[in-house]
Amino acid sequence: MKRQWFSYILSVLTILPLSFLCLEHEKPSQSKLTDNTQFKPDWSVLNFGAQCDGKTDDTKAFRQALLQSQLTHPKHTGILHIPGSVCKISGTIEIPPHVVLQGEGRFSTVLFVDATEGTLLRIGGAGGSIKDLDIKYSHPPQKGIAIDAASTKPMLAQIINVMIENPYIGIDLSGNSIDVDHIRINGSSYIGVRIGHQTQHADTVDPRVTNSTIASTNTALAGMLIEDAGGLYLENNDVLYGKIGTYFSAGDNQQILWTFANNTVLADTSIDVGLRIDARYKNSIIKGLNFSNSWSSNIQNGPGIAQYNMNNSDESLFNFSNMRVFTVGQDAFHFQGSLVGLSLQNNVMCGNNKNSTSIYIGNNMKDYNISDNNLSYHCGGWNYNNSTGITILENSENGIIKYNNFSGIPFPINLKNKNMSKNLIFRDNIQK
Questions:
Q1: H or E segment and range at residue 10
Q2: What is the pLDDT of residue 232?
Q3: Is residue 378 over pLDDT 90?
Q4: Entry's Gene3D superfamilies (predicted)?
Q5: In which region does residue 236 sit, left (phi positive, over 0), alpha (psi from -120 to 50) or beta (all else)?
Q6: Distance between CA atoms of residues 415 and 397, nearest Å
Q7: Phi–psi pair at 281, nearest 5 degrees
């Protein structure tokens, strides 16, 4: 019996794993962290050979660091740190999805660009971001883009606390929910910020530009150019100089739908036009522009705020309230071409060209309301203003002009053709 029991135990031991017989068992390895919200690896470009001494070309080191981040953790947020020094760059740097290019602050981290054309930083995919650095060109480039957030149509990208000095185009935006905040662009020679250049049908969705200053050269096309956007939000910006301050210019099959601009300087000392709105093709659409508590000014050639529609495109529902339109070269507001639904309320127009009109209503204007505006000859510290309050051309319909201040204006209203202006109500305005 004992011999049978011993044989049974021996047979069991022969089938057990050897690890079971060890006196010290190896501890099981801990599972890898899989929570995306906690997994935030950090890198430094210095770990990949960057010198950041202002002399050595660090382009290759930046590319290797970003490539490694994409290969190692393609679905997690990573931060590539740049030291507070000068890093010399001579080519395009691609920022992968979910990677933040993080400096130590404007004036501290400087990307010194030794190139005369091409793109410097390109954001790819979702979640790529650029923060806290200065981009400085050694010479003003002949073409190219400092930050490209357009060609890959990224989403949820952020460009925050960045200075760009002397670019051709400062920032190019297309995609979905891109935030541009606390940006300073100095000396852009073509466009400071361009929105929707590479999309149609308002497919650049919910872009935001806030708390930023864009100062172009006097020969630049525009400080800000909007071509295609749905749900554009502008607030607390200052757009200076350039031929045009802010330019809404919808191209072929492009749409600009529902813009909200509040407490922002659309143009400050621009050369030709402060704010220009223009649907350039028959199939272009510009609809639902809302401007409030904002400013526009230009110094030489054109109107403060101008709307054009020479191709009879769909332009409708423009609202201007609590605007300040000062020291403009010609008309304060100039509307030329088909427009349905215009509201001008509680705006102030002062110090403008004596030989022009404060509000110019061109042909084919329908459903407009001009109320509670200050067009007086002496206001805002100036002792002059446009000599004509409101000029209305033929073929306008359904207009209301009431409660406006025309004090001191030699010609409060100028109807070019009384018989062609239908359903015009003019009442309770101040004229003395």
A1: helix 2-15
A2: 98
A3: no
A4: Single-stranded right-handed beta-helix, Pectin lyase-like
A5: left
A6: 13
A7: -130, 160
Listed residue (301, 295, 297, 302) closest to 278, CA to CA: 302
* Tokens linked to 148: 């490209």
Closest CA to 220 of 237, 244, 197, 238: 244
Q: How far apart are CA 317 and CA 256, in angstroms?
A: 12
CB atoms within 10 A of CB 133: 25
Cβ count within 10 A of residue 165: 18
DSSP one-letter code for 30: P
pLDDT tens across 27-63, in order? 333 323 333 333 346 789 999 999 999 999 999 999 9
Is residue 370 over pLDDT 90? Answer: yes
Q: How confident is the model at residue 416 (pLDDT cuts 50, 70, 90)?
A: confident
- 364: helix, coil or strand? coil
Dist. CA 349–CA 405, nearest whole Å:
10
Taking the chain, what is the end-to-end CA distance rounded to the nearest angstrom? 129
CA 11 to chain centre: 78
pTM of the model: 0.88
Q: Quick one: which of 384, 367, 370, 363 has its CA closest to 333?
A: 370
Q: Which of 58, 154, 180, 167 is nearest to 109 (CA)?
A: 58
8 A C-beta contact, residue 327 and residue 356: no
Q: What are the structure tokens assigned to 401, written together?
A: 């002009």
How many other C-beta atoms can be found within 10 angstroms of the C-beta atom of residue 34?
A: 8
106 contacts: CB under 8 Å, gap ≥ 6: 132, 133, 134, 161, 162, 163, 184
The tokens of 167 are what?
Answer: 């670019």
- Least Cα distance to 237 among 220, 224, 225, 250 occurs for 224
The Cα angle at residue 385 between residues 349 and 345, in degrees rounded to 5: 20
Task: Report residue 321 CA to chain centroid gap.
Answer: 21
**Tally of CB atoms within 10 A around 213:** 19
3-state secondary structure of 238: strand
Amino acid at 272: D
Give residue 99's identity as a one-letter amino acid code.
V
Contact 104, 84 (CB under 8 A): yes
Q: What is the dihedral of CA 196, 200, 201, 204, to 10 degrees?
A: -30
Q: Tokens at residue 407, please?
A: 């004090």
Per DSSP bridges, beta strands 129-137 and 110-113 are parallel
**Rounded Cα gap, residues 286 and 339, in angstroms:** 10
Closest CA to 350 of 321, 320, 318, 323: 323
Q: How far apart are CA 395 and CA 381, in angstroms?
A: 36
Beta bridge partners of 411: 388
